[in-house]
Amino acid sequence: MSEFLYSFNEGSRNMKGLLGEKGANLAEMTAMGLPVPFGFVVTTEACRKFFRDGNTIVESVMEQLHEKIQELEEVTGKKFGSGENPLLVSVRTSSVVNIPTMADTVLNLGLNDKTVSGLAKLGGSNEFALDSYSRFIRMYGSVVKKIPQAVFVSTYEKLKSKESLKTQYSEEELLYRTVEEYKKIILRKTGKPFPQEPYLQLKEVISAMLGYWNSYATMTYREFHEISRDIGVALVVQAMVFGNLDDDSCIGTVFTRDPRTGLKGTCGRFIVKAQGGDLPFADSVVRSIEEMEDFFPDVYRQFIKIAALLEKHYRDMQEIEFTVESGKLYMLQTKKGRRSPEAAIKIAVELVEEKIVDRKTAVAGIKSADVDKLIVDAFHMEAKMRPEVADNFRTIMTWVDEFRVMGVRANIDTPEDAGLALQMGADGIGLCRSEHMFFGEERIYDFIRLIMAESDRERSRALEVLRPYQTEDFRKIFLIMEDRPVTIRLLDPSLHKFMPKSEEEIRQLAGKLHMSEKKLAAKIKVMHEENPLMGKRGARLAVSYPDIARMQTEAIITAAIEAGREMDGMPDVSVMIPFVSTAREFSKVRSIVDEAAAACFEKMGETLDYSVGTMIETPRAALMSDKIAERADFFSFGTNDLTELVYGLSRSDTENLVEDYVKKDLLDRNPFYSLDQRGVGKLISMAASDGRKARPKLKMGLCGDHGGDAETIKFCRDIELNFVSCSTLRIPGARLAAAQAAIDASVKND
Ligand code: ADP
Ligand code: MG
Ligand code: MG
After folding, report:
1. At which of 357, 383, 403 does a domain end?
2. Is residue 134 part of a domain?
3. Rounded to whole angstroms, how far apart are CA atoms 612 and 593?
4. 527 lies in a domain?
């Protein structure tokens, strides 16, 4: 058996890497005894050899091709190049990974001025043969010579309109002229005549179709999606069958379940007297597959049986292509069917109910993008999930949590967010941004008064106004989350973020604060920072304004104890110190927090367990994680800031630049959406392992926009983080991704 060419009866579905998906499935169907027109696969190994040999099919491979064609001649009883009973083949791309830039299928290869009359004898009509010939020339021109299909189509249209004026010309005459015109197009555009010799046609078509693997478009796509060049592409060479032969012939595409709704039962369409891939000339009627029973009752029943068999065999919804030639059914393709998000979850649930797959397989097969889409549609478009969809969704998410190991928490701002997080199935709150609570209508002025305070008295008065707001918000959040972990981050952003920008705003604020506009403007100027993302923020604020950190801690502890009394059990409380860059700085702020908590316990006559940890979001904190871990109870990797600082890229200033870099292939993808695992990830993995060495029980998670990204979640599992935290609507998708990461890991350890 040559590694380069595999006959259909030599392969199986497990050989996708060598035969491509289409080839492997055609081999599988052949082994199942289904009626598949015979053929062979030009393997990915042959593809690699083709490029090693300087983009040519060398003589030895050409000889093997001859042998395979001879085998096809024996099986079909037809002859390549024969004017009596010609063998015609299709050449089809068979991808290992789906890439949209591959070549289209070439049908009717082997037709020439001589064999076309042989084909006419088969169908009993010259029209059928000439029509097939013209299609072949058109596809040859488009796939091999890269002449746009439109050139051929417009030539045909012109001929047709001319002919219709002079009605004495027959359909046959029109097609004959079309063939002649098409040949002229090839000659005119390439300087070479359309090749008449079938083996030369085969060599040219195979070379050209393999060539698409290294086209500029494919290379760009491959690099963007990190697909290795070595994977290669396979081709299928298969004996033609003719759905356009006569009125007893048709072509069809069918799903074994409805790809839109997931409803069980075949769903698709068929066209009487047509050939696949001929959309430009399709003036035929497209019928729904049920109608096929009226046209071809026997073939229909045979097909329905085969479709059910294939779904059972592959244990998934299939997308199937078939052709009927003069009342005889041929299977041309089967593959995992495309489906809508709604269909995806329905099919998964029902395949489990029907005992076709187990829960693990069902969960592993769903895309987290589909789950995201269902949630986003239900919430943003106000479409609301239909009850049946919601049921399936719940079922899937219950299964997801059976396999999930890593925690999935929510990033929130308000008690309302906490409610939504719970509804989305969050295990807890990974990040509650406390500053957002100051942004309310009136609260913002009180907060500004705090920042502007010129004396201790003024400051403490402002703090006392704010304290009840914060306490109340935290209390509500604790009550909603009950005993689930809630991590509250102390004030993080640079204070001038809260300041007015325009003159009008300054005028209004001055009025509110009973302050002169001039004085307010001067204050704002003093607070201005050139680079606020690296300015006085995070832990630095707590060092400069310990009162604020103290008040926030007291609000957290008071709220927790109050909620605990109401709930009969204390909440699980963590205080998170943001934007730390040194261990001493962390210790300093931690002592402010611990002292404030102690004072609170004293006052309330009750204590509770709480932890204090930090965000690792500056490169230095990551580098010094062992030292910080000696004093911190947990880490949460703040990947937004960390990515900016590791790259030296300001996210808000460089959106266009990053896009441009991705286009120019200088970046694989936007590192603010999916974690840069090689660079930023290297730092995180090092910081995690150093931190764990210093404190084996250190809890670690990742919060930041990356927390909802499936690839990033897989990475977090690999470095054994305890949880990810993401925005509320991404939680179901993140739970699925975490389950899939766990399933992946368990398979690898099998
Ligand atoms: P795609 O990968 O885009 O689905 P295919 O290779 O399946 O492309 O081919 C496109 C069309 O040509 C399909 O309708 C298919 O059924 C038809 N086709 C391919 N090979 C043959 C063949 N040997 N005989 C008849 N029709 C064929
Ligand atoms: Mg197909
Ligand atoms: Mg941050």
Report:
1. 403
2. yes
3. 8
4. no
Pocket of ligand 1 (CB under 6 A): 37, 90, 92, 105, 107, 238, 240-241, 251, 276-277, 321, 323, 332-333
Q: Is the pLDDT of residue 372 over 80?
A: yes
- Determine contact, residues 62/40, Cβ cutoff 8 Å: no
Name the average pLDDT for the chain: 93
Average pLDDT value for residue range 712-736? 96
Number of helices (H) and strands (E), helices first, in the chain?
A: 30, 20
Ligand 2 center from residue 571 Cα (angstroms): 57
Domain termination site, one of 239, 266, 290: 239
pTM of the model: 0.85
Report yes or no on 282 lying in a domain. yes
Looking from the CA of residue 243, the nearest atom of ligand 1 is: 25
Q: What is the pLDDT of residues 522-546, one digit of tens each?
A: 888 888 888 889 999 999 999 999 9
Question: Do 134 and 57 fall into the same domain?
Answer: yes
> In 240-369, where do the E strands start and end?
250-257, 264-272, 286-288, 318-325, 328-336
Structure confidence at residue 168 as a pLDDT band (50, 70, 90): low
Do 387 and 412 sit in the same domain of this protein?
no
Domain count, the chain: 4
- Does pLDDT of 84 surpass 70? yes
Q: Whose C-alpha lies nearest to ligand 1, atom 12?
A: 276
Query: Residue 367's domain spans which residues?
Result: 341-403
pLDDT band of residue 280 (cuts 50, 70, 90) is very low
Tokens of 644: 């900016």
437 CA to centre of ligand 3 in angstroms:
17
Residue 632, classed as helix, strand or coil, is coil
> What ligand has the least distance to the C-alpha of 238?
1
CATH code for position 262: 3.30.470.20
